[in-house]
Design a protein that fits this description.
Elements: H1 44-53, E1 62-66, E2 78-79, E3 85-88, E4 92-95, H2 101-111, E5 122-127, E6 130-136, E7 142-146, H3 152-158, E8 172-177, E9 184-189, H4 192-195, E10 210-213
Parallel strand pairs: 6-10
Antiparallel strand pairs: 1-2, 1-5, 3-4, 6-7, 8-9, 8-10
């Protein structure tokens, strides 16, 4: 699912600690729990592969570049700047934002061709920021920011939880933008079975997703 705006390609970030800032993420479908879906998310296996292999680097991501055959070239971890670049020894500024780690690795192999003993460069994402917006029938609507993959339920809990007196937990809408087309799509997710303790796969958000928790319809 989309990432730089509403897309998600979280990478191998198993060591991310939880961090949250409330002010104003690859999706896993809840199997059979949201029939009214305008945009089909990828299956679990596809999402897992995207996380480990197809993360798209963004500004602010902390990146560690290693040269296994030439460790003296290893720079300290650094963050991708607002201009989308990293500054590395010998080669200087290198465009990193918008590339996957493997694409950046291949670029660095070419740039460091004269210095490398073996054609091996390892790019590891050591930190990142994932943010979404939650509004509607939750306790604290606004922006939720963490540095690890974020599920829909976690985003709601980070917003103080549902307002159970008014929240319609069976028809939550996730609005997402495709960065390649700029078009928006919406996904309707039913979290009611999960809240009732039934087993279901987590629905993971993409950075920039907007989550809307509607109120229950009432004639009174």
């Amino acid at each position: 699912m989309p990432r730089n705006s509403f897309n998600s390609r979280p990478g191998d970030r198993s060591t991310w600690p939880l961090r949250r800032a409330v002010a104003p993420a690859a999706a896993i479908a809840l199997s059979g729990l949201f029939p009214a879906c305008q945009s089909e998310p990828p299956p679990v296996s596809t999402l897992a592969q995207q996380r480990s292999e197809e993360l798209v680097l963004r500004e602010g991501d902390g990146v560690k570049v290693s040269f296994p055959g030439t460790p003296e070239l290893d720079p300290p971890p650094s963050a991708i700047r607002r201009d989308g670049k990293l500054t590395l020894p010998i080669v200087g500024d290198v465009e990193a934002a918008g590339l996957t780690p493997s694409e950046l690795q291949n670029r660095l192999i070419k740039l460091y061709a004269k210095q490398l003993i073996s054609d091996e460069v390892v790019v590891t994402v050591v930190s990142s920021s994932v943010y979404v917006f939650v509004d509607g029938a939750v306790q604290h609507p606004g922006k939720v920011e963490v540095d690890h993959p974020l599920s829909l339920l976690e985003a709601v809990m980070e917003s103080g939880g549902f307002d159970y007196a008014t929240a319609n937990t069976s028809k939550i809408t996730v609005i997402r933008q495709d960065p390649s087309t700029g078009k928006y799509s919406s996904i309707e997710v039913n979290l009611k079975p999960v809240i009732e303790g039934k087993k279901a796969d987590a629905f993971y958000l993409s950075p920039g997703d907007v989550v809307h928790v509607p109120e229950k319809f009432s004639l009174f």
